[in-house]
Amino acid sequence: MTTKNKHSKINLKKLNLSITASSLRSYAISLVFLLLLLVFSLTSSTFFRAENLFNVTRQVAMLGISAVGMTFVILAGGIDLSVGSLLSLVSVVCAKLMVEVGLNPGMAVFLTLLMSCGVGALNAYFINEINVPPLITTLGTMTILRGASYVLSTGRHIWGFPDQFRIIGQGYLGPIPIPVILMGLIFLFGWVFLSRTPFGRWTYGIGNNEEATRLSGINIKKMKYLLYILSSLLTGIAGIVLLSRMSSGQPKVGTGYELEVVTAVVLGGVSIFGGQGKLLGVLFGVLIIGVLENGMILVNISDYYQQIILGFVLLAAVGFDNKVSGRLKGN
């Protein structure tokens, strides 16, 4: 057998294993989702009511918006733990710009999203130029941003917005909540970029083999700037939606939010090692988190136990990913 044939067989074997792993993830996600629907429909008589289902989709809209940005970052082999604190800072900054500075909602939202992009650029700067690992970089900015939100708000709630601002988080387009429409559009945007553009191919390439992608002529540093800016921008949009829905800027919002976002993405089949995963799976991951949290509330499981369960869900998702990918400890 020639060396060429041997390599062809090895590549074919790898392709088959990749397809099998992807299929296994898809089946597992679907099974978990259906199982949750069955359990909560049997344990709560109100779970399948239309108003509750709309409530679930409205509740997960912010999570879904941030999850799209996190998907891009994790696919490229990174992580962004600053999203929860950024959500808090966005809430406070946008509220102050409208209430205390007196800006109109459009300008306040624009400046707040510009600030969010700056946070993403800061994360990318430390990762690219100072060579600080993404986990440590975003853990540091997570602490900085949380502190900044408390300093700017002095620990107080900020309220008194114009009525038109509430439309973003509380309005409807026909029977569908506007936050759900925003989430759908952002998922569509993410799908197009990941599956139909060179940007998506390069994102997967960085996660699979960063050095090979660099040698193929891709500017890795530029890509990482764009990826972290995108993650922060989408979290900024999620923060605006949350602020509009709550009608007050609160420095404490977003606590533990990064755990939910990472859990939704990994649960949706995106490999924590990067390079593998689809946005459709992430959408299911987001819905699973929403159904799980809503169902636990309906059956009167306390918030403390909910956090324990969510932590176990994350561990299970990452453990499953390790087994399927066969990459635990270099295997």
Word description of this protein:
The protein is mainly alpha-helical and 331 residues long. It has a single domain, classed as Orthogonal Bundle (ABC transporter involved in vitamin B12 uptake, BtuC), CATH 1.10.3470. It has helices at residues 3-43, 50-75, 83-99, 105-128, 134-153, 167-170, 178-196, 198-208, 210-215, 220-246, 257-267, 279-298, 303-325; strands at residues 158-159, 172-173, 176-177, 248-249. The chain has a two-stranded antiparallel sheet. A hairpin with a 2-residue loop joins strand 2 (172-173) and strand 3 (176-177). The two termini are 27 Å apart. Residues 3-19 and 327-331 have low confidence and may be disordered.
What structural category arises from helix and sheet content? mainly alpha
What is CATH's topology name? ABC transporter involved in vitamin B12 uptake, BtuC
With strands numbered from the N-terminus, the spatial order across the biggest sheet is: 1-4
- Helical percentage: over 70%
Distance between the termini: 27 Å
Name the poorly predicted regions.
3-19, 327-331
**CATH architecture label:** Orthogonal Bundle
What is the 3D shape? globular
Strand content: under 5%
Order of helices and strands: HHHHHEHEEHHHHEHHH
**How many separate helices?**
13
- Number of domains as seen in the coordinates: 1
Largest sheet: 2 strands, antiparallel
Mean pLDDT: 87
CATH class: Mainly Alpha
Radius of gyration: 21 Å
| Counted beta strands | 4
List keywords for this structure.
ABC transporter involved in vitamin B12 uptake, BtuC, mainly alpha, 75% helix, disordered C terminus, two-stranded antiparallel ribbon, disordered N terminus, 13 helices, two-stranded antiparallel sheet, 331 residues
